[in-house]
Amino acid sequence: MYQYDAHDQALVDQRVDQFRDQVARRLSGDLTEDQFKPLRLMNGLYLQLHAYMLRVAVPYGTLSGDQMRVLAHIARRYDRGYGHFTTRQNIQYNWIKLEEAPDILADMARVQMHAIQTSGNCIRNVTADPWAGVAPDEIEDPRVTAEILRQWSTLHPEFSFLPRKFKIAITGAPNDRAAVKVHDIGLRMHRDPDSGEAGYEVIVGGGLGRTPVIGKTIRRFLPKDHLLSYLEAIMRVYNAHGRRDNIYKARIKILVDALGIDAFRDQVEAEWQALKDGPLTVPAETYAAIRARFALPPYDEGLTGSVSTLRLDEAADPALARWIRANVAPHRVPGYGIVNVSLKAPGQIPGDATASQMERIADLADRYSLGEVRVTKDQNLVLPHVRLDDLPALWRALDAADLASPNVGLVSDIIACPGLDYCSLANARSIPLAQALSERFADMARAQDIGELHINISGCINACAHHHVGHIGILGVDQKGKELYQITLGGRSDDNATLGKVVGPAVPADRAVELIAGFVDTYLAIRHPGERFIDTVARTGTAPFKETLHAAA
Amino acid sequence: MPLLETGRRVRDRWTHLSDTDAPPDEAAPVTVSLARLTAERDALLARPGDLGVRLPNAAAVADLVGLLDGDTNRLGLIVLTFPAFKDGRAYTQARQLRETHGYRGSLRATGDVLRDQFFFMARCGIDAVEVDLPESAAEAAWRSALDEVRSVYQPAADGRTPIDVLRRHTAPGREVAA
């Protein structure tokens, strides 16, 4: 958990006062809505269908128990008692009053939180592996880099009026849990094969939305001290040359594609020569100082074992065993596990949590997880440091708050945007379809048999729920006033990132549920032993599934 | 429209020539379009009066630098353009001129210039703005806009010390108070 120092705190406090003044000028009429819009957006405030929506940054998805309690307080005091965790590891509130927004920011600043750059055409909240710092396969904790990027990008003088929004993700492990290939910039930590030194593979021009593109490697290995100068060079080329005539062509992926990665790289290199080894150099002492601010209370010593070798008493407590199998992952420290908390109980709105649930999680984090919580891009939560011998007690406590669904990474762990229920951009509703599907797959024993399967539902082409990289992707479309759903198969956002392929015409919601149930049945019928859904689709292509389509028609 | 230079309201001493106007006299400070500077470079640089250029925001700073044989300080004023406040290309031009090419003359923001951009502009090395504010309010707006956020993370063109440098020069245990 990064602890602010006096400088970090000063900036956030100053920012609250500044926004309070901007809101006052808007309410008095000194600022027009047009002039105010970019200011509120840079503080995460959108005007939605029914009210203002406030998106709060959860930098790289890490929260303390105290911060989670303040999120609960905001839900209760300023909203309708709940919040929605997003695919960018943030939380948003859907029923905010403009005149109260400065008070909310002030409440957040007291626990070292803000809403800076959660929207607008600027560098957005940097996302990272939700298992950062605890995953056994990790090279280095990516949050140290992500925090350096948070600081560098905060109120950046040159990059606050970019052609379009800009998203950066980082993974510290070879197994990409941050979807780095579908971000404007993706960073993958790895070791230089010769020197053994840790650094970054830099990937650029990935993205979803209207034009989904898998990012391309612009630099195989970037030493850590060049992180900011190199990224500044990329941003500078984008700011100067990214398209501004068409909002749908303004992301960096379009520029990279138009120039070609080699010509784009040449321009970045030319710009980098002016910046390299200058004041943007990040010395090792800065990395060390930031890392020190993530210090945790110590782990208990002398523990042994891993969740992967834990003996589960199926007969005595099958539900607990199922939950451990699905939701608890191995931790790098012996005797500990990473507990994934599902926000996807059957029929629940994906990513929504009530104020009471947030408070429960906060208390459990303090009691069982060294005071730390994570938010995942799959709209779940993580208690990252749980002693294996605490698992039964934790499970009972989670279960009492309806937070123990044993379905993390399974078919009912559906990722969905707010859709037409809230969002002014949406063409179709996402939430009711997610609810219908999670109820259809509510049998948790069967879900475990089906195994890993990601369903992503976006209510429009902007792809907030990353439908292109869902194993089963669903896109809401509006055809002549009807809400229909276009289904894709075979997408994935891991280290083998691939975009899904469209199967069949768009269909109404009830038909979509039937089709997806059919796809799952097809998979169960044709899978090889041990083969995941995504592996079967990769092996067979979409042909056997298209047969389902016709058979079910 | 008020013109502020380093936060002070001033009368514009520059004459902004169209592409066909002749300069009022040899000594008068004038600005010309980038196209005219390109076409009449030698004659314009040979004048005793100060010379400035109006730089479109799509222009490559490197091209202007080439036109000046690498010496940006042959110009006394570079007028930057913000066709819409959302169009931030001129921020990059400003920093390239100041930080990469050592330009020390005046950098003036024109177009859709809003008070809430002053902070970013000043950080990028823009020292002058033409802004649509009441004459009486303009100086105070500049002062307060630059003073709202005093802590900065990035090294840029305004000489503010970034937080990381402050940290490294603060002995452990002696943190700067907020």
From TrEMBL, chain A:
<dbReference type="GO" id="GO:0020037">
    <property type="term" value="F:heme binding"/>
</dbReference>
<dbReference type="InterPro" id="IPR006067">
    <property type="entry name" value="NO2/SO3_Rdtase_4Fe4S_dom"/>
</dbReference>
<feature type="domain" description="Nitrite/Sulfite reductase ferredoxin-like">
    <location>
        <begin position="52"/>
        <end position="109"/>
    </location>
</feature>
<keyword id="KW-0479">Metal-binding</keyword>
<dbReference type="GO" id="GO:0046872">
    <property type="term" value="F:metal ion binding"/>
</dbReference>
<keyword id="KW-0004">4Fe-4S</keyword>
<dbReference type="InterPro" id="IPR005117">
    <property type="entry name" value="NiRdtase/SiRdtase_haem-b_fer"/>
</dbReference>
<keyword id="KW-0411">Iron-sulfur</keyword>
<dbReference type="InterPro" id="IPR036136">
    <property type="entry name" value="Nit/Sulf_reduc_fer-like_dom_sf"/>
</dbReference>
<keyword id="KW-0349">Heme</keyword>
<dbReference type="Pfam" id="PF01077">
    <property type="entry name" value="NIR_SIR"/>
</dbReference>
<feature type="domain" description="Nitrite/sulphite reductase 4Fe-4S">
    <location>
        <begin position="119"/>
        <end position="273"/>
    </location>
</feature>
<feature type="domain" description="Nitrite/Sulfite reductase ferredoxin-like">
    <location>
        <begin position="345"/>
        <end position="401"/>
    </location>
</feature>
<dbReference type="InterPro" id="IPR045854">
    <property type="entry name" value="NO2/SO3_Rdtase_4Fe4S_sf"/>
</dbReference>
<dbReference type="Pfam" id="PF03460">
    <property type="entry name" value="NIR_SIR_ferr"/>
</dbReference>
<dbReference type="GO" id="GO:0051539">
    <property type="term" value="F:4 iron, 4 sulfur cluster binding"/>
</dbReference>
<keyword id="KW-0560">Oxidoreductase</keyword>
<dbReference type="GO" id="GO:0016491">
    <property type="term" value="F:oxidoreductase activity"/>
</dbReference>
<feature type="domain" description="Nitrite/sulphite reductase 4Fe-4S">
    <location>
        <begin position="413"/>
        <end position="549"/>
    </location>
</feature>
<keyword id="KW-0408">Iron</keyword>
<dbReference type="InterPro" id="IPR051329">
    <property type="entry name" value="NIR_SIR_4Fe-4S"/>
</dbReference>
<protein>
    <submittedName>
        <fullName>Nitrite/sulfite reductase</fullName>
    </submittedName>
</protein>
From TrEMBL, chain B:
<dbReference type="InterPro" id="IPR008318">
    <property type="entry name" value="UCP030820"/>
</dbReference>
<dbReference type="Pfam" id="PF06073">
    <property type="entry name" value="DUF934"/>
</dbReference>
<protein>
    <submittedName>
        <fullName>DUF934 domain-containing protein</fullName>
    </submittedName>
</protein>
